[in-house]
Amino acid sequence: FRAVEDLIKAKREVMPAIKKNRMREKSRSAYDPSLFTSTVTESAIASSSITDQMENIVDIREHDVPYHIRVAIDNKINVGHWYYVKGRGSDPPEIRLVEDEPDRPEPVVLAFDIETTKLPLKFPDSSLDSIMMISYMIDGQGYLLINREVVGADVEDFEYTPKPEYE
Question: In the beta sheet, which residues pair with residue 144?
Answer without folding.
Answer: 135
